[in-house]
Amino acid sequence: MPMLTAAIYIPAALAEIAGCFSFWAWLRMGRTPLWLVPGALSLAAFAWLLTLSPADNAGRAYAIYGGVYIVASLIWSWGVDGVRPDRWDTLGAAICLAGAGIILLGPRGS
């Protein structure tokens, strides 16, 4: 299940961040409103990908995704914005990812 989860959540994070970045580029960077078209498509892809989660309910799927999103956001910040994560970013992301793993893999009662 962890590989399936990664195969869903990693592209979902990239889709969400790219979609939100298109709105950021339009509003904060003065780019053309045409940036909103791929942004909206990217956000729709993100939402669809989350429905493929193996989690047993939507809230748990979002909670697991949260850890992946935090790590992906820091990678985006480094790769796109040129801001390298510091040790506190890395520690916080690791804690969040560990929490997501506990939520994903924790034993559940019947």
UniProtKB/TrEMBL annotation:
Protein name in UniProt: UPF0060 membrane protein
UniProt similarity note: Belongs to the UPF0060 family.
GO CC terms: plasma membrane
Family annotation (NCBIfam families): PRK02237.1
PANTHER family: UPF0060 MEMBRANE PROTEIN YNFA
Any matching Pfam family: UPF0060
Keyword Transmembrane attached: yes
Keywords from the UniProt entry: Cell membrane, Membrane, Transmembrane, Transmembrane helix
Localization per record: Cell membrane
SUPFAM superfamilies for the chain: Multidrug resistance efflux transporter EmrE
Domain of life: Bacteria
Residue ranges crossing the lipid bilayer per the database entry: 7-27, 33-50, 62-79
Topology with respect to the bilayer: Multi-pass membrane protein
